[in-house]
Amino acid sequence: MNRFLAVALTVVALLVPARAWAQSAASLLEQGVRAYTVREYDGGAWLLRRALAVEGAEALSNAGTARALLYLTATEVARNQRDSALASARRLILLDPRYQPDESFPQPVLAVYQEARRTAPSVSIRASGDTAIRPGAETFVVRLGSSTSPDVTANVTNAEGRVVRTLFSGTLRDSVDLRWNGLDGSGKVPSPGRYMIQVTPRSQRGSAASANWTLRLPLEVMQPSIDTTPLPPAPPDSLFRPERGSSNAAVRALVPGLVAGAAIVVLPKIVASGENASSARLIVGGAVTIAGVAAFFSHHPGQRIPANEEYNRNLRESWQRNSQEIARRNADRMRQTRMIIRPGAPTLVTSAETP
Amino acid sequence: MRSLVAAVLGLCLLPLAAQAQDDHRLRFTAMGLAGQQLVQSTAADVTDKLSGHVIGFEGTMIGNPFMVRVRYGEGRINPKPESAAEARDVVSGEAMFGVRALPWLSLWVGPSARAYTVGESDQRWLVWWGRATARGTLMPGRMQTFVELGGVFGGNVGSPAVKAGGRMASGGLEMRFGAMSSFWGRLGYGIESLHADGLRETVETLTLSVIYGLPQ
Prior knowledge:
- The structure holds two protein chains of two kinds.
- Chain A is α+β, with helices and mostly antiparallel strands.
- Chain A has helices spanning 2-22, 25-37, 41-53, 62-78, 82-95, 107-119, 247-271, 280-298, 306-336, and strands at residues 123-127, 131-133, 140-146, 151-157, 163-171, 175-180, 193-201, 213-222, 339-343, 347-350.
- In chain A, strand 4 (151-157) and strand 5 (163-171) form a beta hairpin.
- Chain A is rod-shaped, with a radius of gyration of 40 Å.
- By secondary structure, chain B is mostly beta strands.
- Chain B has one helix spanning 2-20, and strands at residues 27-43, 46-62, 66-79, 88-102, 105-118, 121-139, 143-157, 162-163, 165-176, 183-196, 199-212.
């Protein structure tokens, strides 16, 4: 009996963490809040971080995220983890600069929040969850907010930090919707991968006091594989006809005619010397020689050959038409394909934190 | 009767050639020919000149690189007005085995026979040839020329047999009847000089031929 009980407890012990991992973000948030309430700070911090880490459809709403960050700030204050508490408070301010914490929280928690507000730049960035757009036809929207009207530049950058597209450059009054249509600066669809919306203050002449900070919103861009048709290769040179008559080819046609014609005329003298060969050899030898001369001129040595020029032109145009048609069909397929953009948690790097 | 046999054989070769065009390993050509023949026949220092018409056929099986060619012709030649010779019936044939040594050069070896019938008597020349044929293209797929040279390396004439020798040369022009036609025309000239003890036969032939299939 004792052995059965031990096995059952072991199974339950193994299943409980697995169940916790499988829970929704909202459920984790509620458990985290409850843990804070009953002063289970370590478990509460773990649950709240788990809730904030959930992505996709099960992720927290913006209001839920703000609540989770506030409770995480309070939990970290209670655990005497001041830096972690400040980091959580800053994330909350990034999410919503106008967020007002409940006055029922202990004074140290409110103090940490106020300190984070004082030191954080007054900008925020907020994105909805996973968004599927048709590149070029629809847009992915991010709301950028501020209460101090800074001059900022917002770029989409790739994993190497190269600017893919500039979304905004100017004075940020209250808030602005940054709209990215999924294309890079040259109008092409960027390859799937990790990107970032990076907001930085614009340097202003005589404004040495302007803050030095960078607000980053990581983006994961995914795109289903698109079955496009490869463009046909350009026709090889061997398919083109010479546009001018080749002198070499003309000579190659002339020489056999002259040699054979002369041979037919002369050879009877060698084969049957002493006999009187008939004039038939002259007829055939002459015909062969004339044919060789005619073949020489039929190659139009050095002259333009309009028929070949037209043939080559048609060959090129046919290839170009074919390529354009395939490119158009590929573009149609690309336009119909949706790009999925998954935003991550925004981060703020200030001058003090910049390496 | 022999003309009838030749015509029937020629007609039989045409469908064979047509059927073989689809076979990439072997090609066949069939040719019907008609020509004027001039013969200078010397015996005991007396030379007779004769001329007449001949008809015949030729079939060639072309492989890579080997080839086989058979030719048959017959006709009647009559003495020139100044000659005292009698008219003759002429029958000739040859079977050559060849190899393409170069794209433009073929080498041949094989026997040929020529028989004259004068009244009730016959004169038969049987010789073994070695030949070389050179071809040149004037217009690709449209017009080509050829020259053939040959020498006898063994042969005999008459009964009892007398050792014979000789040389030959021929050449001509081949033209396709149309851009995509299977038929070609040939204007050819050939001269063949055979000799034996006290005998000499020089035969010049001017031929017009129709060829079915791509000439080698």
